[in-house]
Structures are given as C-alpha cells and as structure tokens.
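Input structure tokens:
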C-alpha cells in the first residue's frame, strides 16, 4: 500500500524552475531518500506533500488523502521537519514543544524527553538565540514526539555535528524498525545509505532515477574510471555502446554490468590509456555518474 504518492506533479515557477512531472510512490514501512543538488526541487516536492503548495497539475496523496485538500487531517499522522526552520513567536524550546504537543493533543511527553536527552538538547534555551543545530534538534523532537506513522524530513541533519548526526541516524533506524514510512531529503549520502531502502534523485525539477539502495551498493555492476593517453582516445571510446560519462577531456567514468566485463576489457585493450581504477559502489558515486550523465526517468 502506497502511503505517499505523487502522480505527474508539476509546479512550474517559470524559467525552467520548479518540479516537472514528478512520480513517486512510497510504500508502508519504506524509508525513501531524496537527493539532488541545491535548487533541484527537493523542498518544493516536500512542501507539496505537506499541503503548503498546490500543484499546477497532478495529484499528491498521503494515505490516499489529497495533500492539499486534507492538509489538516494529514498533519495529525505526519511528523515533519522543514528545510528552513522558522519558529512561531515563542520564547523557549520548551514553549514551542508544549505548544506543538497541545496542537497534536499529546499529553505524554516521555518520548519527547527521551529524544531531548539523546540529542543533548537544552529546551530551556531562548529560541531566538539557539544555534542552527539546536533549532534542528528542536524540530526533530517535535516531528517525532507524537509517534506519527509517517515522517517527512527535509534535510533533517543540517547543522548537526557528526556525533549528533550519528545519533539521529540511530533514531531513524529505530523509527523504521517500528514500521514507520519515512521520506527524507538529504545532502549526506551516507545517512541515506544507512537508513533508506530506496532513493530518488532529482535534477532540474525532474526525477532522474529511482533505485533500491541495495542495488546501488551491490556488485552486479562495476564502475571504472579510465584515464586515456589523449583526448582522441577518450573521444573514440565515448562512441562505444557503453554506459560512459566524460569526466574531463581524457577521463571517462563507465558503468559495466558484470556479465559484459570480459567484453569491456577486450574493447579497452584496443585503446591507449594510462590508468584504470575501480570505484566503490556508493550512492555518491552513482549520484556523480547520473548527474554528469544527465539520464532522465520520465
Ligand atoms: N516560490 C518560488 N518562486 C519562484 N521560484 C521558486 C520558488 N520556490 C522555489 N523556486 C525555485 O524552484 C527551484 C527548486 O527549489 P527547491 O527549494 O525546491 O530546491 P531544493 O532541491 O530544495 O534546493 P536546496 O538543496 O538548495 O534546498 C529552484 O530553482 C528555486 O529557485
């Protein structure tokens, strides 16, 4: 069952800015990562999920409810951290936490207290004087404290130091273990690798790939960087029917399925090259490959 579903969603801000024909489906209990460069369209997509934006075309649904029309109802079952945290007019972290608890009709703050302790947050601090990391921690506590079945997190670890980021990852793993459906954008590839089942990459407002993390990390394909002896050789190699991307005038990144490895090596032996290195299978490597290659997933 899809808990979060976007079908053909477009929000066109003009000048090729916005999001275009977005299709995403996040199943019950799935942790789904969302990555892309600055301005790629992550926050715009997430704001549609929260019913803050109405799409020009297409449908956005959470638990089969229209995200725009049923925004109030949806908020009761979604924990959300915004990309840009702006607190209402409250003095302290505690005041904000209590105010949000009241809105959620939450009387038991024991989980909030556990999170506060684990994230080493001092909620008595003046909210206006809080550092970016402290504000982020406060937003995380509020998003998670009512134990909602769906978490929508827009770059939740921005501003957290490495220790706190590790603690956050642990918390998210535990939330996933409870069966939560999680949609999380991030610039941190490792945290998506560690927590998510699937990842979608967005580039210039369009989804360029959706893949299982396990398949990205698997050894079904290999990624090589070849440094050719000169530009002519690299240009000639780019004509081969292989999944290649030029990194520089003489360097090429190539994705090779294991079953054509021998064929690839035979082809390569007809070229002059100075260096051949195998890359690790990581989300970061996949991201660079697709971003420079510009594959589309319409
Ligand atoms: N209200 C708006 N009016 C006009 N353009 C907008 C508006 N909101 C966003 N955009 C543009 O839409 C594009 C996508 O922006 P968005 O904030 O969704 O990107 P992002 O992937 O979240 O980026 P970042 O990683 O920097 O947070 C950008 O080109 C942005 O300038």
């Amino acid at each position: 069952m899809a808990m979060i579903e976007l079908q053909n969603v477009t929000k066109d801000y003009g000048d090729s800015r916005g999001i275009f024909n977005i299709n995403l489906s996040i199943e019950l209990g799935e942790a789904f990562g969302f990555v892309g460069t600055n301005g790629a369209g992550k926050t715009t997509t997430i704001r549609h999920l929260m019913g803050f934006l109405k799409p020009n075309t297409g449908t956005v649904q959470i638990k089969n409810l229209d995200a725009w029309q049923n925004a109030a109802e949806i908020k009761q079952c979604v924990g959300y951290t915004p990309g840009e945290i702006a607190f209402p007019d409250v003095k302290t972290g505690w005041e904000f936490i209590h105010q949000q608890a009241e809105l959620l009709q939450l009387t038991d703050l024991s989980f909030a207290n556990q999170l506060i302790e684990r994230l080493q947050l001092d909620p008595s601090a003046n909210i206006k004087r809080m550092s970016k990391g402290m504000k982020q921690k406060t937003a995380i506590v509020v998003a998670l404290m009512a134990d909602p079945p769906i978490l929508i997190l827009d770059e939740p670890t921005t501003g957290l130091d490495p220790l706190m980021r590790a603690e956050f990852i642990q918390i998210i793993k535990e939330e996933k273990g409870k069966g939560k459906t999680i949609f999380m954008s991030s610039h941190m590839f490792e945290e998506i690798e560690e927590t998510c089942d699937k990842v979608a990459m967005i580039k210039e407002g369009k989804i360029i790939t959706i893949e299982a993390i396990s398949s990205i990390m698997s050894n079904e394909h290999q990624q090589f960087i070849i440094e050719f002896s000169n530009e002519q050789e690299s240009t000639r190699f780019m004509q081969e029917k292989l999944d290649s991307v030029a990194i520089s005038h003489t360097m090429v990144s190539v994705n090779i399925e294991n079953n054509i490895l021998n064929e690839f090596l035979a082809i390569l032996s007809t070229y002059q090259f100075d260096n051949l290195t195998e890359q690790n299978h990581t989300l970061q490597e996949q991201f660079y490959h697709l971003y420079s290659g510009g594959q589309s997933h319409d």
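The chain has eleven helices and 14 strands. Residues 294-298 have pLDDT under 50 and may be disordered.
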